[in-house]
Structure formats: C-alpha cells, structure tokens
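User: My collaborator sent over this chain with a note saying "see what the structure looks like." That's all I know about it. Can you take a look?
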Amino acid sequence: MTGTKCGTCRRRFRPTRSDALTCSPKCRQKGYRRRLSVTQTVTGNVHFSSQTDLWETPADLFAALDAEFGFTLDVCAIAENAKCRAFYSPADDGLAHDWIGACWMNPPYGREIGRWVAKAYESAQAGATVVALVPARTDTAWWHDYVTQAEAVRYFRGRIRFGEAAHGAPFPSAVVVFRPSQ
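Assistant: Without extra context I'll predict from the sequence alone. Here is the result:
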C-alpha cells in the first residue's frame, strides 16, 4: 500500500488532505495527548502544575509586610518555611485553633482555600488582624463571600515568584488584609 505513515500509530494510510498527519481523528487526538504530556514533562515543574498546593512566601514580600504589621503567628506553615516563631503546622491544624494577634497566612492553594479564607475573616471579626497571600481568584465563591469584605486587597503587577522558583507563578496573586471591625 502506498501513502503516508500515520504520525501516531505508524500505519500507512492514504491522506484525504495534503496536511493530514494521522490516519483518523482518534489517532490525531492520541497524538495530541502524547505531545501534551511530553511538553508538560519537559517544561513542567512544581510551579506550573497541581503537584502541590504549598507555595512558599517570597522572603522580600513577607519582610515588607512583617515590618508593617508585626506578625506574631503564622497560621498555616510547615517547619521548613514558617515565617514566625509561633506557627501552626498541618499536624496542628490551624483551622482548629483560635487566631489572635497579628497573623500571617499563606494557605494551601487547593480546594480547601475557601475554608482558610473564611477562618481569616471570622478571626478578624473576633479581634485578630489576618494578612493573607492568596491567588487572585475573583470568580470564586470564597472571594466574593469573604475577600470583598476585607479592609484592603492589594494586587500585584505581574506574577510573583514563590520560594526559589525560576519563574513567576502561573496565576495572579493578592494580599488581603482582614482587620477587626471598629
């Protein structure tokens, strides 16, 4: 049989168009998925994937905010990246404790983020000041329910770089300030 070899299954086929590289739509889709997974393997690192929801706070950003607010408690940290002497680790479950004083929060950016933002809002209502670094997801319920009621929302121009990442985050970020009601 004469013709062209399929780029995916390597069978020979007679192309119906001059630009056909695969023998069928099924092979075209399979080839697309294969190319996509190769691209993700080559270019993907933890900062461009969902492999983790833990993003280390940039040191210079935290230093500037700490100078302004004087944080006493990091409500959501691991020992390796805690920003305050007092902190709640995953084993402590910061959501189960009262937050008092000036609190720093860089929550896990996964599905549980809404619970963390709700706790920040509620803690501010109870007297704490909570400053949070969150993805600017203005289309989410937690953003509309809680962030819109914050004292201040500070947006970044461009994307911030977390931890030792070589590139900026694949999402916009914001610092949200929850203060006690006057």
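A starting point for your reply to your collaborator: The CA atoms of residues 14 and 117 lie 58 Å apart.
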